[in-house]
Amino acid sequence: MARYDVVITGGAIVGSSIAYYLREEGFTGSIALIERDPQFAHAATTLSCASIRQQFSIPENIRLSQFTLGLFRRLKDEFGSDADIGFREGGYLILAGDNGLPILRANHAAQLAEGADIVLENAEQLQKRFSWISTEGISAGAYGLTGEGWFDAHAMLGLFRKALKTKNIDLITSEVTGIERQGNRIVAVTLASGERLEAGTLFNAAGPNAGKVSAMAGIALPVEPRKRNVFVFEARDKFADMPLMVDPSGVYVRPEGSVYITGGAENEDGELAADIKDFNPDWGLFEEVIWPVLATRVPAFEAIKATQAWVGHYDYNALDQNAVIGPHPEVTNFVFANGFSGHGLQQAPAVGKALAELLVHGGYRTIDCSAFGYQRVAEGRAFRELNVI
Ligand SMILES: Cc1cc2nc3c(=O)[nH]c(=O)nc-3n(C[C@H](O)[C@H](O)[C@H](O)COP(=O)(O)OP(=O)(O)OC[C@H]3O[C@@H](n4cnc5c(N)ncnc54)[C@H](O)[C@@H]3O)c2cc1C
């Protein structure tokens, strides 16, 4: 039987970031990072749309993404001269009709207060900026001039994983199948191999499976997998200036090299947890929901052809679509980094840094993440992010 000061369940972007920043903050104890799918074939990280924005409603969410943006801008200093994640600063364009306008305005004010480079433009201005758009039904749009865009998620994860190899971290390929708890302390985890690892502190970085992992410790966490379809399509016209555009219907689209990707067709009303093993695309969503929206918003997309699709699972926090970050208030050596609900990739570096600061220095230093704490879950008190895409 082995003993580790820190055990992390889940080795994709969030788990890897926690391990990375623990060492960066000077943690000298032993660390085990446990991952059941070392190719990350089914991780949200690698099945995501790999985009980063400043356009959130909550200042803390803006700050978390800004930290990651800073990391992207000094990537080579952090990870070496050959580090490259193909960051393309194409911006987000979030559109609103009359109904959505007050929220768009309020969000924009919050973003400006955090120093984000976002402009709010009316339909006429948008039409002038983007020749390909139809502003039918649109009152305004918020557009990120800088600081928003997309990148290669595999490359980003690869940088963290590679860096871990020189940081004296045990990368274990196995599944955590049980968590032993004595009163208010986590004592050990059991692996699928039958091995038992004693744990000083246990981090939950299990993505869409985080609710199940918490349940192993007898702790309720309302994080569940929600199936999200992403479609790839080709179009005759290429719009090099197209940002990641979000229609008021929730449908989004952005360029990806010579093609486009699109999604956002799922209806969350009454939506239940998905089968985490279901990776079959729901092609009907493209024909019935996405294509009509795209054809209206971008008339040149009247004639498009979906060529591929993939499915990933959101790590969906059913309470408020916002992250749960930090230790359990009573079981204090069980630490959450969960429930990012579609924006966890861009927040992972900041969350890893914050949790490392908490463990090493006893408090948050760079970004105060207290508002994301589990206490609100225990009380059923929502901390709602309004810009969930
Ligand atoms: C379609 C889609 C689009 C998205 N687009 C974006 C985007 O544009 N921008 C953005 O910021 N975010 C986006 N997200 C969200 C983002 O991908 C996630 O929030 C983020 O990747 C979560 O990272 P994670 O490491 O917590 O989870 P994951 O990447 O899912 O990793 C969790 C890991 O834990 C492992 N694991 C689980 N249980 C166990 C266990 N019991 N034992 C051992 N290992 C275990 C899994 O195998 C997995 O590798 C998107 C998500 C989806 C599905």
UniProtKB/TrEMBL annotation:
Keyword Oxidoreductase set for record: yes
SUPFAM superfamilies linked: FAD/NAD(P)-binding domain
A Pfam cross-reference name: DAO
Coiled-coil blocks: none
Keywords assigned by UniProt, alphabetized: Oxidoreductase
PANTHER family from the UniProt entry: FAD-DEPENDENT OXIDOREDUCTASE DOMAIN-CONTAINING PROTEIN 1 (PTHR13847:SF287), SARCOSINE DEHYDROGENASE-RELATED (PTHR13847)
Name of protein: FAD-binding oxidoreductase
Annotated source species: Aminobacter carboxidus
